[in-house]
Phospholipid-transporting ATPase
Amino acid sequence: MTSGQPLLRSSDPSAPSQRHHSCSFGSLGCLCHNDSFNSSITDDPQGNSFGLDHLDKGDENLSVGDTSLHSPVRESFSSDVTTQQFHSVESLHIKPLSLECPTQDNTRLVSWGPMELLHGNNNSTTSATFEISKASSVVHAKVGSGASSSLHDKLGKSQRKSRHKSLQFEDNVFCEEDARLIYINDPRRTNDKYEFTGNEIRTSKYTLITFLPKNLFIQFHRVAYLYFLAIAALNQLPPLAVFGRTVSLFPLLFVLCVTAIKDGYEDWRRHRSDRNENNREALVLQSGQFRPKRWKKIRAGEVVKICVDETIPCDMVLLGTSDPSSVAYIQTMNLDGESNLKTRYARQETSSAVYEECTISGLIRCELPNRNIYEFTANMEFNGHKFSLSQSNIVLRGCQLKNTDWIIGVVVYAGQETKAMLNSAASPSKRSKLESYMNRETLWLSIFLFIMCLVVALGMGLWLAHYKDQLDTLPYYRKTYFNHGKDYGKRYKYYGIPMEIFFSFLSSIIVFQIMIPISLYITMELVRLGQSYFMIGDRHMYDSSSGSRFQCRSLNINEDLGQVRYIFSDKTGTLTENKMEFQRASVYGKNYGGSLVVADQLQEENLSAAGAHRRLKIKSTIAVDSELMKLLHKDLVEVERISAHEFFLTLAACNTVIPIRASDRSSSCAETQRHEDVETIAYQGESPDEQALVAAASAYGYTLFERTSGHIVIDVNGEKLSFDVLGMHEFDSVRKRMSVVIRFPNNDVKVLVKGADTSMFSILAKDNERDNHVRHATQCHLTEYSSQGLRTLVIAARDLTEAELGLWQCKFDDASTSLTDRATKLRQTAALIECDLNLLGATGIEDKLQDGVPEAIESLRQAGIKVWVLTGDKQETAISIGLSCKLLTTDMEQIIINGNSENECRKLLADAKAKYGVKSSNGGSLNLKCNKNAEIDYLEIAEGKKEGIAKVPLALIIDGNSLVYILEKELESELFDLATSCKVVLCCRVAPLQKAGIVDLIKSRTDDMTLAIGDGANDVSMIQMADVGVGICGQEGRQAVMASDFAMGQFRFLKRLLLVHGHWNYQRIGYLVLYNFYRNAVFVLMLFWYILRTAFSTTSALTDWSSVFYSVIYTSVPTIVVGILDKDLSHRTLLEYPKLYGAGYRQEAYNMRLFWITMADTLWQSLVLFSIPIFIYKESTIDIWSMGSLWTIAVVILVNIHLAMDVQRWVYITHVAVWGSVIITFACMVVLDSLPAFPNYGTIYHLAKSPTYWLTILLIIVIALLPRFLFKVVHHIFWPSDIQIAREAEILRRRPDHLRSRPDGCSS
């Protein structure tokens, strides 16, 4: 393949031409040759970090280079094309652009890309640290500080952090060794050194060659597996061969094989997915024509054509699009989880070459592959001229092309080097708290094992020393050979007393090895898998509105759901629907929105009256104020009418929303009963707030109809008006507002601004008393809207003179093409026009609460769980939502911390602690204090009051500005003391990193379990910091879901997840661990007592296979079934009495006390199990293998009946598992005793005939379990737990009425 082939022939009917307009005064932007380009990220000059994780989802959306108005292609719109209408490509014929080098005066192109911060007034550049979440591809941009960097360390994510340097495009963009050279349409020359990877991807872990060693290496990261490997290795040594050499390997091999099969199946599915992905096809330019080619064969430098709705196969720089203004719309959901459309652009120089018959050749110098999906730094040499490329010129692998017929681009990164693949790592794994406690008990069992082995070894030494002169005549030992021959008189397996003690110690470890239960690990995995299956299948957690069901994305922390003490919740989209509805409007000091009617009928009538043959219809139904609608349709030219007109023009124009039109045949209204075309418009925006405002403007007759890179078309009551967009200043966290400069059809130029009230009132004009009245009225309306929980924005505008426009445009061109400190320069440029504004009004948007949120929060609080809300909304809105969702109550005393300095925050915290008697905690008793608080809170809920607790419940409300000083200074402990004393904590205006900081505040200072729940990209840090992360499948993409451990469709499902499934999972796993410890310990102790009676000889009465099968086959299935299916209480009872959840965080199902009680019971049962057969058969001639067969059957029946005593819910499969396990044991014993090769041949047949055998088993069961039975009865009668009381009540409710009714009307 060679370069120089035309991309599209002129004869191609779909190839449009373009008209080249001369530069006019209204042209947008310039690219000066001497400008330099900088690749870092925007930041606040005061040091307040922000990034694409928005401070507020929709209130302050920060976008870098994703809006259609920030195009590197800036068309010059002179007066002759002001009202030009753009239509489809097929209907448009435009003259090709000349590719000759234009003069600087003729063409000025704006290049948008990443930005860099100049710190304060200093000219030194502050590097921005990038943190990209492994699972979610979220970028946090922040200025490094000690506290924030330490917090990032705690997040535990392997991040790629880089320091970005300024890149000059004038002479040399990159150092030669750092640049990647891409020769357009010449892949051979591009990769002449074979240094670039192909486009084949591989997400699988293993290959056929690496599977076995790599999988084993990963599995042996578990220390317990190394322990059992060492045991098996010891058993291969002749002096220590207690079990058969093959038999000793069986348990470990079984566990390793099960895990390997599971891992292999999962990896096979990855291989299958990779194969399907790599074999997809795309159109690649080959010999002058676009021909299909498999993705895996695409190489860097090739030119690829993508059609609408197709997926991008690799990272490509755009050369041209089907849109006349070289814009392309892409959906990045597969990459960053966001469902909104983004805009990307082809450079004007390359776009024109796509449509004409000319040779294509050029060189792209770009940065080396990196994980930053929000930045791309490169330049292009094309037809002898050099120009810059930015993030807005590249489309990434995994994105989908939308609303654009086709695009053509050149591959710059392929395969594993694409940004999508570099960001495809998994979420950080989390470990169950109960499993960490289990390790503590495992240590105790190891100590017991060591003591038992030491006793056997020392006993062996003492016994040998006592009988050292009789060893040749005793039945257990021989020092020499007795048989005549060459070995006569030589030593026979005797190594002297010291070595015999040592070998005895090692042999004892082998005999007692299952004291550490290897089967517990595989059992817990299977049980968690079964629990997850039932959680996923719970129809009560299925969200029919979004079609999403519950997801278990992490299988190792199911039981943690039953121990949650703190919930940290986002507000927008988590507690609320994130579906914004325009409710109230304040226009020129007058309040509207009191009486709302549906807009559809009224709007259609207005359009019909205007004589429109094609009616416009918005997909959503919006209620409008009839009085405001009448004002807009008045013919009078008065101040109020003009203000209302500009108010809705601002709503329709000042945004980055993309209108998507679709024609449709439908019936008109019933009066006419005729068919006509209806054009439906749907809006795609980067925030639901913007979409709601644009839809509201459309409902009032101001419909955003079309948007291209340089103009917008607004349908005003049936009349289409075209406006030139001269420039736009996006929202950022410093200005907290957005503005757009537009040229009206009558050549007037206005700046339209919308923003937060805190930033807007300071830049309004202060002329006369009338303006002051409007301002005061609007402020009153804003306060009213906030108190109702509405999200507010202020709308303003003003005319620009030619002089002001010229000054601003020159500054804007310089700032937007500046390659150093672009963000600061753009803010300074915006300040030139964002001043002396005329106040038009304000808006109030309602973000409705999700169904069931108040009830869910109330139930969680009754369960003793503290709910904290962390939101980016303003304080008034957050408080209003808190009241409506019952998080805040009217009887609560609100503590508000709004500090602007460290000293002020310190004083506010100290005053609050002193006023409400909050005591400071010291480091030594910190965890003790927190645990006491947990108990106190529970008792307060259970009993209603408790001595020593403040009678007035407290609610802490704190803003993000205060948290800057508190979390990064030495005030964390003060905040912790105050916050943990409050029932509710509400954090407003918090950044994503501050959310994680709040979670870490509790997580690092207490032993309480934390859960974070959110729906957006700015919740990812919080979700990954918490012990349990829950993602909501909401309106803001899937980034939160991708980073979470569990995902659901609605917040209300959290109530059932914790109170029902969390409770069940914790109770099951807690009992499962204790039972496994008991089951193995009783077996080992039985062997221990036998060894003590056989001269410490480590001789076993059980066959090798019986010892191996005991925990793998005989007793494993019942524990798995009970761990998955057992329920101590029904879901109705658990939801009716939320306080029952407290058993989890009080650790009632698993604690040290229960462990020691279990071990004491185990000791008793093992003594009974060993002693009774010895006592009964002491005068008989029963052999050792018969006794071993009896013990095997007895111990299996004993542990299964022990389990049956604790089963709360008997179902058919439970009966099959428990009693079937006993039957399988008998069957295995019969098979093993029927093989002549084994020494126990035929023993079961003799024993089964004897009544003594069966009576012995019955006596063992009764005597062994009698103390346990009596203990349970006494405890249930005199010290019943809440769960036992609830269970009795549940049983009584299920009985017939005459059995539980009493004549005196009393009830239990």
Q: What stands out?
A: The mean pLDDT is 76. The CA atoms of residues 1085 and 1115 lie 17 Å apart. DSSP finds 40 helices and 42 strands in the chain. The radius of gyration is 38 Å.
